[in-house]
Task: inverse folding
């Protein structure tokens, strides 16, 4: 019989409010992209140097 490779307990299951690590990573990517877009929009809207 082959021994099954066990994952450490912290690699599977919930991480705080997130159901998995993939959900956590996806949330970080989405919020990072949202911040980049918002900063760009504010930069364009609040650019008082253009005539």
Result:
């Amino acid at each position: 019989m082959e021994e099954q490779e066990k994952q450490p307990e912290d690699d599977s299951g919930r991480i705080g409010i997130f159901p998995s690590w993939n959900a956590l990573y996806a949330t970080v990517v989405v919020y990072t992209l949202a911040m980049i877009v918002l900063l760009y929009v504010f930069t364009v809207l609040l650019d008082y140097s253009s005539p």
Q: What stands out?
A: Residues 16-45 form one domain. The mean pLDDT is 85. The two ends are 76 Å apart (CA to CA).
